[in-house]
Amino acid sequence: MKINKFFSAVMFVAAVALASCGNPPEEPTKPGTDPGTNPGGGETTEYVAIPSSITLPAGAITVSEARDIALKLESGATSGTKYYIHGWVKKLGGKIAEDIEKYGNAQFYMAEHQKTDGTYDSDDFVAYQVKGIDGAKLASADQIAVGDYVVIYGEITNYNGTPETVGKGAANIVASTNPNIGKQGGNPDPQPTGEIKDVTVAQAIEIANALEPGAKTTELYRIQATLTKVNTSDENVVKYGNINIMVKDNTGEIGCYYTNNVGNEKFTSADQVPAIGSVLKIVGPLKAYAKNDNVTPEFENGYIEEIVSQGSGPAEPTDGGEVTIAEFLTKPDADDVWYTLTGTVGEIKNDVYGNFDLTDETGTVYVYGLTKEKKIDLKNDKSFAELGIQAGDVIKISGPKKTYTDKEGKSTIEVNCAYLIEKID
Length: 425
Known about the structure:
It is a single chain. By secondary structure, the protein is mostly beta strands. It folds into three domains: 14-176, CATH 2.40.50; 196-309, CATH 2.40.50.140; 318-423, CATH 2.40.50.200. It is 11% helix and 41% strand. It contains six helices and 23 strands. Strands 10, 11, 12, 13, 14, 15, 16 and 17 form an eight-stranded mixed β-sheet that branches.
């Protein structure tokens, strides 16, 4: 259940917060300036600098960037990618001592900037049900305090319009200026070492399904399978250096998340990502990924050991023909069958990717992304703004059917990453 009451907390400069814990203030807490983010547009605002004891991991994002990622998601959706998020602890969630005692996690609110007068000038990001260093349970309420500077690690979600981390201890603190929490952590998902065991996809699924929900193997496994889908945008390949992919062999299909390049190296360019149809050897630990009371077997934090053969890219999808919306709603989910629909555009809910309701005389369906040209790899290129589409326009589009289920268990049928054929009126 969401916490909706909060302790009153006095906000003060980080140096005071650290001194109150028995340590002298750190030298780097002298104010810095950041005119590029001055929200008032007037005189430059003076901010407290990030303490030198904090080492930001590669690819770490700010509170504002985390909010932007969350608010571009549909309500209940999650990012599917873990992020390092850094900022100031602005406010504590209610019952924090009780939550730490019972569950070993805490809720607190992060701000991007702390000003020299002890106030904060950015919107909040909620660190929801977050554990301690390296995923260990928090031990006491004094490990989190207003004025701490923290780095947290986890997936991002949009909880009914609130930007926050995925809960139930799925996120954790990586670094903090709070002296009571322990040393700065590294990657909370260290990769196992030792003998690599060869398995089929079906065997990998069986091993993962035998784990406790959320658990990961301490052994490494290897599969040889064909790449069927890349779920990471070109932008995020470069930003985070890994990819989320689906692969299959003649025994089944499995997801491989946060997968590094050949030699366990980070990807530095989207051009390095193997083409659909490539045969890959994947090495990594197996995990029973738990979400919404569902458990999904997968590889996590593995790497491509070898590209056995290069694929030719995604195949041209099958044309499912022109259908009414009522007919579309009855079709099976399939990325490789595209249907043509004509209808009236409703409220545009995302004008970057092109998300809106489409209605004809038989019903309404949600369009999750509309692009200028056909994208058979299902990667939205943010070309929607070029189309000039507004609510009330009558358009003809084509795309595959997908059913999305949010964390509350509500399912929505979507036209996934469609493209515009023509604007009729």
